[in-house]
C-alpha cells in the first residue's frame, strides 16, 4: 500500500525522510526527468529599462514598518496571518482612520510565509476577509503527488516528484492569475518573495533588481510561480526555472560590478552580486530555484541586501522619508520548529530517516540564528548612520526636505523583534511546535496558530514601545 510522505518535518518540509527510501528503491525505479519550463519572458523594446518598477517605494510619513514571514508550510502562513490581524486592531493616528496594517511598508516571505506575504501584498486589508477560507482551511496538497511509491521515487531522483502542480493550484485557487504588475512598487506594502538559487547558493529575491540582471520583465511574471519557488521543498518539487537573456541585458544593470570590485564588501552582498553577474554575462542559461528556507528561513535577505548595498547613509529610503522618520520596527515572524525526536533517550539512534531530518533542522536553525543576529547588528549600524546624516543637514536641506521647526535630528528609534512560539509560554509553545509543516491542517490547528500570532505580537515589549512612540 502506498504511504503518504507529507509528514511532520523540518522547516523545508517532511520530504527529506523520503530520500533514504529513494536510495533503497533506486535500482527498481526508472529516473524519468522531471523539470519546469521557464516562466519569465525577455524585456520588449518598449520595456527595455523595466522602468515602472522601483526597488523601494517612497512614503512620506514618520513610520517605517517592515515584516518578515518565515517558512513552515500552512502553520507559518497562519501564524503570520495572526500578526496581520493584530496589526489591524491598532489605530495609528488620533483620527483613527488607519490602522498599523495600512502602514506596513515592506513584507518579505519565505516558503509558507510567502503565501501570506504575497496575498497581503495583492489585496492589502481585504486579504483579512478571506485568506483563512481561501488558503488556510484548504487542502493545498490536493493536487500534489504525496505518496511513497516506485513511480514517485523515480520522479524524485529525476528532479522532483511534483513539477507545476502547486503553481497551478495557487494560481487557480488563491492568486487568480495575478502577475507582478498587480504589486506596484509605489504603494504599501512592497513585497519580496524569497527563494534559493541552488547553483550559486544564494538568496533569490523576486523583484526588479534580480529580473533586471536576467533582463526579464518582472511585471509579466506570475505571483503564484514566485510563491511556488519559495516553497519548493527539495525532492518533493522540481526546481522552478528562469531563463537568462544576456544579449538583451541593459547596460545599466551593472550595480554588482561595484560590489565585486570592493574588497571590503560583505560576504552576503558579494555572493549575491556574483550571482547577479552570472545571470547577466551568459555563463548561466537557467536559474534553478528551490525553497527559500535553504539559505534564509527568516526572509531577511532582501532587507539585509538593501541595507548592505546602500551607497548613501539614508538608503534604501529616499531623502524625504529618511528625514521625517521617527519610529522604525522590523518584525520577524518565526514559525520554525523547536527540538523534536526521542533518539537522545537511547544509546541507539538516530536512525537514517531521523538523521537526515535532524541534519536539515540543525543547518536551518543555525543559519537563521546567525542571520537574525547579523541583521540586528546591521539595522543598528544603519540607524546610527541615518542619525549622523540627519544631524549634518543644513537649514536649507531641512527646508527642502520639509521638516518642521520642532524637528530633532536624533529622534529616531529602531526596534528589531522576533515573534516565535516561545513567546507564548512552554505549554502553548509545545502545542504549536507539534503542528506539522504541511500544506493541509485541520481548522482547530489553524485557529490556534492565528491566535498565537496575534498574542505573540501583543506580548512583545518592542512592539509596545513602538506603539507608545506613535
List the helices and strands and how they pair.
Elements: E1 3-4, H1 18-25, E2 63-69, H2 73-87, E3 106-110, H3 112-123, H4 127-136, E4 147-148, H5 150-157, H6 165-175, E5 190-197, E6 202-206, H7 208-214, H8 223-230, E7 240-243, H9 255-260, H10 267-281, E8 286-290, H11 301-308, H12 319-324, E9 327-333, H13 352-391, H14 395-401, E10 413-419, H15 426-433, H16 443-458, H17 461-468
Parallel strand pairs: 2-3, 2-9, 3-5, 9-10
Antiparallel strand pairs: 1-4, 5-6, 5-8, 7-8
Can you give a write-up of this model?
Mean pLDDT is 84; it is low at 1-30 and 45-57. This protein has 17 helices and ten strands. The radius of gyration is 22 Å and the shape is globular. Strands 2, 3, 5, 6, 7, 8, 9 and 10 form an eight-stranded mixed β-sheet that branches. Strands 1-4 form a two-stranded antiparallel ribbon. It is an alpha/beta fold. The chain is 41% helix and 11% strand. 45% of the residues are buried. It starts with a strand and ends with a helix. The chain has helices at residues 18-25, 73-87, 112-123, 127-136, 150-157, 165-175, 208-214, 223-230, 255-260, 267-281, 301-308, 319-324, 352-391, 395-401, 426-433, 443-458, 461-468; strands spanning 3-4, 63-69, 106-110, 147-148, 190-197, 202-206, 240-243, 286-290, 327-333, 413-419.
Amino acid at each position: 500500500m502506498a504511504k503518504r510522505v507529507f509528514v511532520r518535518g523540518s522547516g523545508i518540509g517532511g520530504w527529506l525522510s523520503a530520500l533514504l527510501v529513494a536510495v533503497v528503491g533506486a535500482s527498481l525505479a526508472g529516473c524519468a526527468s522531471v523539470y519546469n519550463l521557464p516562466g519569465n519572458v525577455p524585456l520588449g523594446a518598449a520595456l527595455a529599462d523595466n522602468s515602472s518598477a522601483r526597488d523601494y517605494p517612497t512614503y512620506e510619513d514618520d513610520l517605517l514598518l517592515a515584516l518578515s514571514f518565515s517558512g513552515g508550510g500552512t502553520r507559518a502562513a497562519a501564524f503570520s496571518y495572526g500578526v496581520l490581524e493584530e496589526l489591524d486592531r491598532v489605530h495609528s493616528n488620533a483620527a483613527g482612520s488607519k490602522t498599523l496594517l495600512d502602514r506596513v511598508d515592506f513584507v518579505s516571505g519565505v516558503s509558507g510565509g510567502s503565501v501570506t506575504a504575497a496575498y497581503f501584498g495583492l489585496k492589502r486589508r481585504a486579504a483579512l476577509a478571506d485568506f483563512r477560507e481561501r488558503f488556510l482551511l484548504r487542502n493545498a496538497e490536493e493536487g500534489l503527488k504525496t505518496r511513497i511509491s516506485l513511480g514517485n521515487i523515480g520522479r524524485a531522483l529525476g528532479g522532483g516528484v511534483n513539477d507545476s502542480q502547486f503553481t497551478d493550484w495557487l494560481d487557480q485557487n488563491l492568486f487568480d492569475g495575478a502577475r507582478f504588475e498587480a504589486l506596484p512598487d509605489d504603494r504599501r506594502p512592497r513585497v519580496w518573495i524569497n527563494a534559493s538559487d541552488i547553483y550559486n547558493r544564494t538568496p533569490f529575491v523576486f523583484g526588479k533588481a534580480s529580473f533586471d540582471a536576467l533582463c526579464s520583465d518582472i511585471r509579466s511574471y506570475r505571483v503564484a510561480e514566485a510563491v511556488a519557488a519559495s516553497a519548493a521543498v527539495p525532492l518533493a518539487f522540481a526546481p522552478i526555472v528562469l531563463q537568462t537573456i544576456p544579449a538583451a541585458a541593459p547596460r545599466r544593470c551593472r550595480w554588482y560590478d561595484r560590489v565585486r570590485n570592493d574588497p571590503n564588501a560583505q560576504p552576503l552582498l558579494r555572493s549575491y552580486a556574483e550571482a547577479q553577474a552570472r545571470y547577466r554575462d551568459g555563463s548561466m542559461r537557467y536559474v534553478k530555484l528551490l525553497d527559500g528556507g535553504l539559505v534564509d528561513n527568516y526572509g531577511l535577505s532582501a532587507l539585509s541586501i538593501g541595507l548592505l548595498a546602500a551607497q548613501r547613509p539614508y538608503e534604501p529610503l529616499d531623502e524625504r522619508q529618511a528625514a521625517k522618520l521617527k519610529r522604525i520596527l522590523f518584525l520577524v515572524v518565526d514559525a520554525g520548529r523547536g527540538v523534536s525526536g526521542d533518539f537522545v533517550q537511547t544509546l541507539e539512534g538516530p536512525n537514517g530517516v531521523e538523521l537526515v531530518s535532524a541534519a536539515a533542522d540543525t543547518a536551518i536553525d543555525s543559519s537563521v540564528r546567525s542571520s537574525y543576529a547579523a541583521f540586528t547588528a546591521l539595522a543598528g549600524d544603519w540607524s546610527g548612520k541615518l542619525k549622523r546624516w540627519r544631524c549634518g543637514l543644513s537649514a536649507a536641506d531641512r527646508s527642502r526636505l520639509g521638516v518642521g521647526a520642532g524637528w530633532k535630528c536624533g529622534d529616531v528609534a529602531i526596534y528589531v523583534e522576533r515573534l516565535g512560539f516561545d513567546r507564548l509560554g512552554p505549554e502553548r509553545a509545545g502545542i504549536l511546535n507539534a503542528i506539522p509543516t504541511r500544506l493541509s491542517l485541520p481548522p482547530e490547528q489553524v485557529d490556534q496558530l492565528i491566535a498565537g500570532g496575534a498574542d505573540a505580537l501583543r506580548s512583545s515589549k518592542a512592539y509596545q514601545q513602538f506603539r507608545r512612540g506613535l
